[in-house]
Amino acid sequence: MRRRSAFAVLTAAALLAVSACTAEDAAEDPKAAGPSPGTLRVLASSELSDMTPVLEKIQQDTGITVKPTYMGTLAAVDLLAQGKVDGSYDALWLSSNDYLHLRSDAAKKVVSETPIMSSPVAIGVRTATVSELGWQPDDVTWPQVEKAVAAGRLTYGMTDPARSNSGFSTLISVASGLSGAQSALTDADVEKATPKLKEFFQGQKLTSGSSGWLAAAYERRGTVDALLNYESVLKGMKGLTVIRPSDGVVTADYPLTSLASSSKDTREDVRRLTEALRAPAAQQQITEETLRRPVVASVAPATGLDTSRRRELPFPGSQSVADGLLDAYENKLRRPSRTVYVLDTSGSMREDGRLDRLKKALTDLTSDFREREEVTLMPFGSEVKSVRTHVVKPEDPQAGLDGIRKDTKALGAEGDTSIFTSLEKAYEHLGADDDTFTSIVLMTDGENTAGASADEFDGFYGQLAAGEQEIPVFPILFGDSDRGELQHIADLTGGRLFDAQKGSLDGAFEEIRGYQ
User: Fold this and answer.
1) What is the per-residue DSSP string for 268-296?
2) Count of beta carbons in the 10 Å neighbourhood of residue 2
3) Three-state secondary-structure class, residue 393
């Protein structure tokens, strides 16, 4: 099954994400506010939320106020290409513009870009594991890492390349290193490296849509040996030896970018902001507070940042190669996903078209299911109503997708709400499985009114085997569901709460895909 273009997959999600992320991260809706003198509405990569202290200091010094809206880099590029940024934002500030330059419809919408700081892809390995492997950190190569993974001596986590720039940059770095590519990756390079890449990604034990959750999951489990991410993320964690493979990595350069749709005065404000961010004092604050590298030669990197040279690896030279690499990762290289969707179909789901919205969200989601993925639908009311499992088999993916759509269409709403009993059934159905990314998605529009209590579920969870306790629950806040109740479930199981009350049910399901 050929997945849609990575850019096309994210188009709908990007449009849904704007309202959700502005509600949480921006002071007001950017389009409704309109431009104002000295204020820049900036569409920014989510990891740049740590720049708030720097921007506050710049506001004091220059009077320029930055109002950011945070989202994933690929999603932001999609919005730009479709013209959805025009009139809504004054500038872009992404971790990299390499995605952007792969798309002519996006590239023509920017008029200037200036790097602000940098952070290379790196591997953070438990210091004890480095010793066990006998590695000299300065000399480690990607083939050496792959050899350790293939021998079962190294496991790791990384973010989802289809949704995270750090994940895609890591994927490119690994593919380049294992293929021996001397320039930008080609389809032939990806094909050449595929056997080794498949071995390499068998060592991936954690996936995530965000670096923050990945780091938390890594700390919680304590059984994974390493993380692949940007150096700046890894340097902020304890107990890791940070390694930049000597045969090359991809580096994010965080360019502040002016838009063709902006006015002359706005571009001047962007220029002033750029100048302020590249001033020596600001560069020093950036490297000390974020552990990214300064781009001004006179400013020394923060203590602990290795200044030795490494080969800089280029991005793929075309969108088709990028899409082909992502397609290979999603459907052939990575571990398959195994998910139980625990779906509230109690009587209250008949209200306000809730059941119809659930059916639409699930039906739409089927276009993003991967080959080899196992999907179980577990609708519940007063008790679990049915357990239907489908596999998206590579030889006949349509059969599995059609089965999911058929069962979704047949969902009906009746009964009370037995959240905790249904979750227990989901864990019993899954068991421990070390060969898949296993998770539970809980969607409910109300609080628990039947079956096991929260305390009883806590006791049940505490008795699970260690491998089963590593299965996270991703609850979706919807309708009249209880935030405290669902947050407790996420915290207990190591999952994350997604809010479909502020945003949309479609958007919540789509965002969870980065964690499956």
Assistant:
1) HHHHHHHHHHTSHHHHHHHHHHH-PEESS
2) 10
3) strand
Q: Rounded to an integer, what distance in angstroms lies between the CA atom of residue 377 and that of residue 154?
A: 34
Helix, strand, coil percentages (3-state) for the chain, rounded to 5, are: 45, 20, 35
Q: What angle do CA 222, 224, 227 make, to 5 degrees?
A: 115
Q: Which residues contact 485 (CB under 8 A, 6 or more apart)?
A: 419, 447, 448, 454
Query: Global pTM?
Result: 0.88
- Asked if residue 7 lies in contact with residue 103, where contact means CB atoms within 8 angstroms, the answer is yes
Residue 342, SS3?
A: strand
pLDDT surpasses 60 at 284: yes
Q: Cα 58 from chain centroid?
A: 29
| pLDDT for the residue numbered 34 | 52
Structural domains in the chain?
Answer: 6-117+254-294 (3.40.190.10), 119-251+310-329 (3.40.190.10), 336-515 (3.40.50.410)
Token output for 120: 């290379």
Q: Within its chain, how far is the Cα of 43 from the centroid?
A: 17
The angle at the Cα of 431, spanning 428 to 433, to the nearest 5 degrees, equals: 160
Question: Three-class SS string for 123-182?
Answer: EEEEHHHHHHHCCCHHHCCHHHHHHHHHCCCCCEEEECCCCCHHHHHHHHHHHHHHHCCC
Write out the H or E segment, with its range, that includes residue 511: helix 505-512
Q: If you ran DSSP here, which 8-state letter would residue 302 be given?
A: P
Q: What is the per-residue pLDDT across 307-351, written as a single tens digit (0 to 9) for each? A: 888 889 988 988 899 989 999 999 999 999 999 999 999 999 999
> What are the tokens at 297?
């030669």
Residue 108 vs residues 82, 100, 101, 102: alpha-carbon distances, Å: 11, 9, 9, 11
Tokens representing 409 are 């269409």
CA dist 60 to 27, 63, 64, 102, 492, Å? 18, 6, 8, 37, 42
User: Residue 20 has what pLDDT?
Assistant: 36
Least confident of 62-76, 292-306, 418-432: 62-76
Residue 301 CB: number of other CB atoms within 10 A? 18
Give the H/E segment covering residue 410. Answer: none
